[in-house]
Amino acid sequence: QRQHPKRSESTQAELVHKMEQLEVNLAKCERQLLEKELLVKQVTQLSEPLRQQVENCKQDSLILAKKLNEVRTNIVSTNHRLMAISAELSIKQAAALSQQQQIKDKELQVRQDHVTHLPYSSQCRPHILEANGWNQMPNGKYTTAEARPDSYIPQNDPLGLPRPYGALAPCKPTKTRGQHETHPYSLKIYLLK
């Protein structure tokens, strides 16, 4: 089987034509690739400042977020302090109101006692006497004398219960000097040479 020379020539010519066409297409693709690389390079150069700006904005936003968190924690702590102070204030106001009410009640009691010509009420009497130095004795009478001990705790008693003195209670010693005595004064002696 012989090949036809025309066919091989035509095939060779077609192959050369296809090869030229492929070379043209390859050159075209290379040119497009170079154009795209140039375009990518230009876009990268143009986008670099924007990328830097975005990075700077990220840093700024991070700093801003930290400051915002600090401000929020300060606000929360200030709110807690304000709530605590307002609670204290309301407690003190309630105490002041109750004291004012007690004062009004006592003033009303004093006015009523004044109208009925009583020197002071039975509720105020023990307080007034104590303020003036009077102490109530067990029998109900008032005195200005200091209460003497009427019992003692023995040293050998394991329970430590007080025992009454009975008739031989210890007496309180008086001051060594009376107020009527004059205190001696020292004379200074000067020697002359």
Written overview of the protein:
It comes from Nothobranchius furzeri (Turquoise killifish). Residues 12-39 form a coiled coil. Keywords: Coiled coil. This is Coiled-coil domain containing 146. The protein has helices spanning 5-115, 125-131; strands at 135-136, 142-143, 151-152, 163-164. The chain has 193 residues and is mainly α. The protein has a two-stranded antiparallel ribbon. A two-stranded antiparallel ribbon has the order 3-4. The protein is elongated, with a radius of gyration of 57 Å.
Q: Give the strand content.
A: under 5%
The outline comes out as elongated
Largest sheet: 2 strands, antiparallel
Radius of gyration: 57 Å
Q: Kindly state the mean pLDDT as a whole number?
A: 80
> Considering DSSP H and I runs of 4 or more, what fraction of the residues is helical?
55-70%
List the helices and strands in order: HHEEEE
The secondary structure category is: mainly alpha
Tally of extended strands? 4
Distance between the termini: 171 Å
Number of helices: 2
Low-confidence stretches: none
Strand order of the largest sheet: 1-2
How is this fold's topology laid out?
Elements: H1 5-115, H2 125-131, E1 135-136, E2 142-143, E3 151-152, E4 163-164
Antiparallel strand pairs: 1-2, 3-4
Coiled coil: 12-39
Organism: Nothobranchius furzeri (Turquoise killifish)
Protein name: Coiled-coil domain containing 146
Summary, kept brief:
Keywords: Coiled coil. This protein is mostly helical and 193 residues long.
